[in-house]
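ok trying this again, last paste got cut off
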Amino acid sequence: MASNQGGSSSNSSNCNSTQRTWKYDIFLSFRGEDTRKGFTGHLYHALDRSGFKVFIDDEELERGEVISKELKQAIEDSQFAIVVISKNYASSSWCLDELKHILYSRNNLSQQVFPIFYDVNPSDVRHQRGSFAKAFARHGMLQRGDEVMKSWRDSLKEVSDLSGWDCNKNQFEAKLIETVVDELWSKFRPRLPLYTEGLIGIDNKVKQLEPLLEIGSYGVRFVGIWGLGGVGKTTIALAIFEKYRSQFDISCFLHNVRTATKRDGGEVQLQSVFLSNLKSKKMKIENSYEGRKIIQNCCCNKKVLLILDDVSHTSHLENLANSPNWFGAGSRVIITTRHLDLLRGAHVAYQHEVETMNPSEALQLFCQKAFGRSEPQEDLLELSKIVCDYAGGLPLALSVLGSFFCGRSTVQWEDALDMLRKDALGMLKNDPDKDIFGILKISFDALPNTIQAIFLDIACFFNGWSKNKITQILESCGFNAKIGIAILQEKSMLKNYDNKLVMHNLVEQMGRKIVVDKSSNDVGNRSRLWTNEDIDKFMQNNWVSIDLISNWF
């Protein structure tokens, strides 16, 4: 399928399209008698399930000789239009007027238009042959004006010259519908506004990196973003990814590389995810060596934006982005890590350290989570500043603490601060991660027992899994997983990325530390085992025969 259909629109129209607010994502035009209860009905439901806002006219809508002002407005308020042209499409003066206004919107409002030729030949549409010739003969008998008839013919010719899809009796309609939805998402995604809600100071942090990135310059650049865990490296990388992804042939964000590679076959899985963005036939990768060869071969002539999030070992780079020679001119590889020495060892020439939030930014972020606005309640201002001091300017700690304090009374605030002070006295100040663990654990301790159990299960076993799979497993164990997951998200202890539940690596480590600390010397008494080493120890020290049930995994 061809790319941008808005090429004929003027520059001013293109500028206006980025500024206006669209009411609908897609307008569906079709001949109801032909396809409403079949192809178009299935297409509508597939688009709706995928999250598109689709305008489809009411089946009982009373139709006159001309389309209504409301329908014209709906066409103009839609970013995209899909025109399902079937055999009897041209027999409807309503459909032809609708098509004419759709093409007006394409040429004047930067709307993108995609035809689907449903069991018709595009050439017959272009030249009005076959059923289209008969339709115009009937329109002639009804004494339609010559000027109106010419505008309809011109509209059919114009739409038939656009790139779209053919659907004939030899095709699986379900497969075509899947293709249409995927293609539309690829067109729609770059138009989505940047998600910056609650991201305090993100614009300035992105601007700080732009001189290192030099997006648009010819060479290939590897850029390292490093800093303390929880300081916001991943958030900055995501903002850069969303801002610039449309300028690259291939764009891919690989979350939690460190965690993903610990699973069996994790590196091969990451290579497969990366290659899936090539939109070519699925390639089965047997091992990481083969994956390296395929990545180099497929990407060496393409402009690539690749984000490798939370890299902790040089092997991660070796298997996913070993050399600038792997990528085409203008490519950018961005690596987030806590380890500056890793960037130096991998000869990443461009490095940027992410600093903690300043006091003003920290207070603003905390207040967003605690009060739902940018400033604190007047009677809680001083207590809020004390909490921010304990968070040390770390966005993760500020978010978790803000969510924890939300809705609590002044007495509860003071009691929680007392807990913070006691934990702080026992912390090793040369271990910043331990400081954060103490802060995060306060939110964990405030959870009900059942939610704590769900949290620990996700931290130990399911971080990065699909939300549906985690819910299914937890519910089969008797947990109310949906509400439990929702509570953890509300507490900023769990996030949902593309229907995958992701726990920040520090939150995950804190959860696993809780399990280990309860029985640090006796593996057999721990509530959960997740490493092969600990499982082997347990099996060696127990005479009981255990059947391992692995069909979940």
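PB: full thing came through this time. The two ends are 38 Å apart (CA to CA).
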